Amino acid sequence: MLKVEHVTKYYGDLCAVNDLSFEVADGEIFGLLGLNGAGKTTTFRMIMGLIDDYTGTILLDGKKIDYSVTDHIGFLTEERSLLTKMTVLEQITYYGVLKGMEEDSIEKKLDYWLDRFDIKDYKNKKIKELSKGNQQKIQFISAIIHEPKLLILDEPFSGLDPINVELFKQTILDLKNKGTSIIFSSHRMEHVEMFCEKLVVLVKGKSVINGYLKDIKEEYRKKNIIICGDIDTKKLKTVKGVIDITKNGDNYLVKIEDKKYVSDVFKAISKCNNITKFSVEDASLNEIFIEKVGEAYEK
Amino acid sequence: MKNKLKFLTKISLNKKIKSKWFVIANVIILVAIVCLVNADSLVKLFGGDFDDTTDILVIDNTEEQVFDEFKSTYEQAGSYLEDSVKTDITLYEDSIDEAKEEVKEEDKVLLVLEDDDTNFLKASLISNSGVDVLISQIITSSINSVKSNLALNYYDITPDKLAIIDKSVEIESIKLDDSQSNDEMMELLMGVAFPIIILPFFMLTLFLVQMIGAEINEEKTTRGMEIIISNVSPKVHFFSKLLASNIFVILQGVLLIIDVVIAVIVRMATTGVSDLSSIVEMAGVGDMITALTTSGILNNLIYIIPLTLILMLLTLVAYSLVAGILASMTTNIEDYQQVQTPIVIISLIGYYLAMMAVMFDGSLFIRILSYVPFISALLAPALLILGQISIIDVIIAIVILIISIALLFKYGLRIYKVGILNYSSNGLWKKMFKAVRNR
Fold this sequence. Notes:
The complex is a heterodimer.
Chain A (H helix, E strand, L loop, with lengths): L1 E10 L2 E11 L4 E6 L5 H8 L7 E6 L2 E2 L2 H4 L2 E4 L11 H11 L4 H14 L15 H13 L5 E5 L7 H16 L3 E5 L3 H7 L2 E6 L2 E7 H7 L3 E6 L4 H5 L4 E7 L2 E6 L5 H9 L6 E6 L2 H14 L1
Parallel strand pairs in A: 3-8, 3-9, 6-7, 7-8
Antiparallel strand pairs in A: 1-2, 1-4, 4-5, 9-10, 11-13, 11-14, 12-13
Helix pairs in contact in A: 3-4, 3-5
Chain B lengths: L1 H16 L2 H18 L1 H7 L7 E8 L6 H13 L6 E6 L4 H11 L2 E8 L3 E8 L5 H22 L4 H8 L16 H38 L3 H6 L4 H38 L5 H6 L2 H11 L5 H29 L3 H7 L1 H15 L1 H4 L3 H6 L6 H11 L4 H29 L8 H10 L2
Parallel strand pairs in B: 1-2, 1-3
Antiparallel strand pairs in B: 3-4
């Protein structure tokens, strides 16, 4: 389990991370979100032990971060972290040994992962000869080859086609099921929604949203109502609590300020013809993110 | 952590040694050294002829018939230069016109000797397209010698009398300070020591500086450095780079020595010379040993060689430390090329000072410069060979160098820790000075 407690980090006068606290349990996928410059990279660097001049505590399985602990952390960076002149085998061996693995045991494990990602022919190819997507696969393998207790994934689907995204998703879920704690960071909210049970949204180093995704969505007052049928949109807009109506194919998406206005909307459309669908749904994480981050910036 | 240091060093070293450019460069160096040592055989192989003989036809129109005396004088003078000048002298009996025709057609040299009323002898040297300068000089000195003999006979001066006339006044050279060495001998020593010790060391130093910068920057241009530094301390990373680079440079130095040995073996095989003496003579080593013996340096070699080696090895460490620190501050190889310029200039200063060491004649200024780290390994051995500084001075240079290395480790490591994960050149120097101040 990773425990981040009241962590604050300053760069000169700039507060990069401000009193950040969160926990990632074993077998849990945790979302760390924020705009560029929000403090995500600084947080990752602190967890990885690359920055040690901060206040607060970071513990992995109850131990402070040091080189014996970082051996159990895997890190997939957003930017390329591969040494392109090396072959795939050399690269994975290099990072594997640095993570405390025995040199002899690495190749067998690599063979398994190369086979799983359908790139077993590339074992002795130089990294620079691989496509962007295949380089991402190698980078992913380098982060998980030592079976880490904590895995940090920063934009893991970057450069991947939809088929390989599915392959990665399945692998991440397998790792979760095996008990790996995973910190997931992405600007693609649909990916975060798909994986993360818990999340933190950072704005200027401070968390503006923190908790279980389910609770966050429930607590978010605004809801979406999806309606299929012939409705009078002009009339519906005058109903109290309705913020916006957009047409999406055969459906109408009606945004309302609060759950309590659902019955008013229902009453308003009950006189309309051919209503085949009326569904109340939580707002998407994307909407919540945009509104919360926007509010925090305005402050 | 020890295992990781060993592993990082191994990977870094393997990367350099297994590189195809390392193999290609060393093959080129080997070929170049073999060609250099066997230059004469090579020239012959491509049509150059060191055995080309010049035919000299002599028409002797003198009353005394001086041809035989001229020929013996010439051959005696030419015997010292037989490797570079080969001639065949014959008396020509036919007419001068026929001789000229032969000169024209067969590229021979014609010498016509005639009596002279006032100067005993006069000569004409006829060639088709000029005469080799050395041959011309030997002919001139031989004719002058013959003419002198004619004059001696004419004035009835015996060789004994002439010897007394010619005998130089003896000038006794007394040096009150015996330790001061002979200039010519010292120039000879430097002439040999410079290309075999100082120049290769200077080149290896530059090579080392380039190599460390390139390797650190290669890792810094990706986020790979974050993965590495999260698992090994910057100190271990730094040490691994220093170790690998220095081992590699030493290995390269050993390979250069092996290249020379191979070149000598090739020479022995191609020239059929089975003993080393001629090769030693060719390389000037024999002269150097004579000079070293005469100057008394040979007796101290037991101290000089280890001290010089220690000084050189420590200097390599110092250069690699500075190169590593500077490389950690830069974000790409282009920036590093600019930042490393001062190191190259310092090294160049040492190189030129060593080259001009003979001129300084033991001045205090150059003695102090020989203590300065980074320069000392180039300058001190040169001054030591020249006898301008003593072993004590070299020990002082080593002590100063060790202190400098300790300081570089202490403060440089602080910079390295900050610089290695720094990806921005904004406020770089401020960050580095701050890093030096922070513990």
